[in-house]
Design a protein that fits this description.
Shape: globular
Largest sheet: 5 strands, antiparallel
Number of helices: 0
Helix content: under 10%
CATH class of the domain at 193-361: Mainly Beta
Distance between the termini: 28 Å
CATH topology of the domain at 193-361: Neuraminidase
């Protein structure tokens, strides 16, 4: 174990970040900025699976799966706002006789401080921890095929949803399971139709417990695809599948966000230029007609769209765009204020051909952050306080993709990214806080 101030972590390292929150972020914006970068993991043989999440109060959860000869281990640490990080706790340690790497590691922390970690090893494993308790033995969720793309989310009361893609003998389908705050599971439900290809699900859950899932679906007998969706009201059942987009070539990369009222926003890419499109749906209503957010003649880069929203419904999308004439790539963003239309896209900064922009919005609407890494020795981020002006800056050195950006109430944010350390197959992890 290593100790870095108040941080304690395993030899393989992990993402553990302190967040500084401002009592009045908009009034203090003139003094706000990114902290100096800090190495939080001096060496790891390879990027260990990890997940880092935060709740609106600024309480944090970090989960990782370090490499263990002869099996696997999942570890976790917590930090209450204003407190110190807990020692790393072993969530599970399994001896299999072989080096096993958990896949699709995912985590969530609710507004009441309860936590969940989930991963795939031979099936889906889900472990719980109450706000003042210890990690429970994992619950194994039965699956008929090979699961992947696992995501878990909790509502404010600690009720949860897990979704994943599953390969069966004849098709790829999207499935889900729910549980209550006491850990009682419902039945695994297939959300998608029994077609050849249903994959890449994304999940949003708001504090009230409303859940929305979107995925990409291959049209039977066609090479085209469409975005599909289903919704589950708090404590209710999953609704029927509904189409979000038309059936068109190269339709993919759907991402969904959900506000406090249950209104949903989906962004995706479609067409030969991977155009950026969005649709919205009020709680209990139908999806709007798709809106093209990026109307320039430039080409978006496949697989890069993302979206976030605050509780009031102010939505922001981000993506990567390549100039059709110069070939230069950049990070773009557009905002749809609650009850309004999408504004014109803004360029946040340059971006290399392999960078993936990440986005997060605080529940109270105080801050939205986009993080990315361009080609070259830098990690970049753009901050917008409220619905103000974007301010972009370099937050630290490194030439790998930004792994996470997170945002919390009262204008707190953090960015984390890996960097090479000139040792074969070894990386260090760095982080910087916005305060």
């Amino acid at each position: 174990m290593f100790t870095y101030g108040r941080l304690r972590m395993s030899a393989l390292g992990g993402i553990i970040v302190s967040l500084a929150l401002l009592a009045n972020p908009l009034a203090a914006s003139a003094a706000a900025g990114w902290s100096p970068e800090v190495v939080i993991s001096p060496s790891q043989p390879s990027p260990a699976p990890n997940a880092f999440v935060i709740n609106p109060a600024g309480n944090e959860l970090w989960v990782m799966a370090p490499g263990v000869v002869g099996g696997y281990m999942v570890e976790a640490a917590q930090r209450s706002f204003g407190g110190a990080w807990s020692p790393l706790a072993t969530v599970v340690s399994v001896h299999t006789g072989f080096l096993t790497t958990p896949q699709s590691l995912s985590a969530s922390i609710s507004a009441n401080g309860s936590e969940v970690a989930a991963w795939v090893v031979g099936g889906i494993q889900i472990s719980f921890r109450s706000a003042s308790g210890v990690w429970q033995a994992p619950v194994s969720v039965s699956t008929a095929g090979s699961p992947s793309s696992l995501l878990v989310k909790l509502d404010a009361q600690g009720n949860g949803v897990a979704v994943w893609s599953e390969m069966t003998g004849t098709a790829s389908v999207v499935k889900a399971v729910t549980w209550n705050a006491a850990g009682a599971f419902g039945t695994v439900v297939q959300l998608s139709q029994p077609q050849v290809g249903q994959f890449a699900p994304d999940l949003a859950v708001n504090d009230a417990g409303t859940a929305v899932v979107v995925w990409t679906a291959a049209a039977p007998g066609s090479t085209s695809t469409q975005i599909e969706s289903t919704t589950r009201p708090s404590g209710g059942n999953w609704g029927a599948m509904t189409a979000v987009s038309p059936i068109l070539p190269f339709t993919s990369s759907a991402r969904v966000a959900l506000d406090g009222s249950g209104d949903a926003t989906v962004v995706w890419q479609q067409g030969t230029t991977y155009g950026i499109y969005a649709a919205t749906r009020s709680a209990g209503g139908a999806w709007s007609n798709p809106t093209e957010i990026e109307t320039s003649n430039n080409v978006a880069v496949a697989g890069q769209a993302a979206v976030a929203t605050d509780s009031a419904g102010n939505a922001t999308a981000t993506w990567m765009m390549r100039d059709a004439t110069t070939g230069v790539t950049s990070v773009r963003a557009a905002t749809r204020p609650a009850g309004s239309s999408w504004g014109a896209p803004t360029t946040l900064g340059s971006c290399g051909s392999t960078c993936v922009p990440h986005i997060a919005s605080a529940s109270d609407g105080s801050i939205t952050v986009v993080g990315w890494a361009p080609n070259g020795p830098a990690a970049n981020a753009a901050i917008r306080l409220g619905l103000g002006t974007w301010v972009s800056s370099t937050v630290g050195s490194g030439n790998a993709a930004v792994t996470y950006v997170v945002a919390t109430n009262n204008a707190g944010a953090s960015a984390v990214w890996p960097v090479g350390i000139h040792v074969a197959y070894h990386l260090a992890l760095k982080q910087s806080d916005y305060r």
